[in-house]
Hints:
By secondary structure, the chain is mainly α. The protein is built from five helices and no strands. The radius of gyration is 16 Å and the shape is globular.
Amino acid sequence: MNSLLTLVSTLVWWVLYGSIGALFCALIAWSVLRWTERCNVVFNRVYLACLLWTLLGMLLVAGVAAYEGHLHPPFRPLLTSGLLRWALVMDMVAGVALVWRLTPRVDAHRVRVGSACLAVAAVMAVGFGVATSLV
C-alpha cells in the first residue's frame, strides 16, 4: 500500500511540475511561433504540445540521471554527460515533431517545420541557460 501511494504521489508531482514548466515553454514557443509565422497561432495547442514535450523531457533526463547515478547534487557531472547530450537531442527532435504536428495557425494551416525548430531552439536555449545558472 505504501509503494502505491508513493507511485501516485510521484505521478501527481510529475504532472504538476511538468505543467508548470510547460507554461513557461509555451509562452516562449507561442511568441516565437507568432513572430515567425506572422499570424496568430492557437495558444492552447502550443501548451498541449509543450506539456507532452516537457513530460517526455523530464522522463528522459530523470532516466539518464538514474542510469548514470547522478540523482543527488552536485549535478555538474550530469551536464557534461554524453548520454545526456544525446537524450537532449532526442528531446529536441520530439519537441519539434510535437509542436509541428499539434499547433495550428488561426487560418487552420499547420505551422512550418522551420518555425517549430526555431521555437524549440529558443525554449532549449532559455532552459539550458536556467539549468546551468542554477547548478
